From TrEMBL:
It comes from Mytilus galloprovincialis. It is found in: Secreted. One of its GO terms (cellular component) is extracellular region. InterPro entries: C1q_dom, Cerebellin_Synaptic_Org, Tumour_necrosis_fac-like_dom. Pfam families: C1q. This is C1q domain-containing protein. It comes from the Eukaryota.
Length: 203
């Protein structure tokens, strides 16, 4: 009798043991399935966020490229004279980010309000003079020039200036009102006449 009771207890114990394991296994499986689903959702959200971030970075890069405002133009190989208060046309573009400098009329048009920097060099030769000024919307900002003392000389003068310009404002280099003619000599093997400008800070 005791043996039968003992056997029954062992069978019940084994039954509950396996039943418990089955429940435990199912519980683990359920948790695992929930975890996989949760992780998959998180992964999908992260991929979507990454896609948005990549798109944003591309847009920012494109905007910055579009916002670049700078130019550098030269007079490549030419000797000529200009009367007083004549615009100097730097006809050969080396760099023109934003295409705001016109190499046909020598005028830069500001695309937005901001602080701009300009620098230019004028070159001459022999016993001649060349004096120029930076003009922004008919206001003279500053000037520079040179006069050779002897024939056979090649000389140049440079100036850098910073100023505020409103959107659609115009900036250019012209000869001053000092009596002309102003003689320019810009050659491959000698100092060249050049003009550069860039947006330092938009406002």
């Amino acid at each position: 009798m005791m043996t039968i009771i003992l056997k029954m207890k062992v069978i019940v114990f084994i039954f509950f043991l396996f039943s418990g394991c089955d429940v435990y296994t199912k519980s683990i499986q359920n948790v695992t399935e929930v975890s996989n689903e949760f992780l998959q959702n998180r992964l999908d959200k992260m991929e979507a966020s990454l896609s948005v971030l990549e798109s944003t970075v591309k847009n920012i890069s494109a905007d910055k490229k579009d916002d670049a405002v700078m130019f550098f133009a030269i007079i490549k190989s030419r000797a000529f004279t200009l009367d007083k208060e004549s615009t100097v046309v730097f006809d050969t573009i080396v760099l023109n980010e934003g295409s705001h400098y016109n190499n046909y009329d020598g005028v830069f048009v500001a695309p937005r309000n901001g602080i701009y920097m300009f620098s230019w060099t004028v070159s001459s030769a022999n016993a001649n003079r060349v004096i120029t000024e930076l003009v922004v919307d008919d206001e003279v900002i500053t000037s520079t020039g040179e006069k050779g003392a002897d024939s056979g000389n090649h000389m140049s003068a440079s100036m850098t200036a910073m100023c505020k310009i409103k959107k659609d404002g115009h900036a250019w280099i012209r000869t001053t009102g000092y009596s002309g003619p102003h003689y320019f000599n810009s050659q491959n093997d000698y100092p060249r006449t050049s003009f550069l400008g860039l947006l330092v800070r938009a406002e």
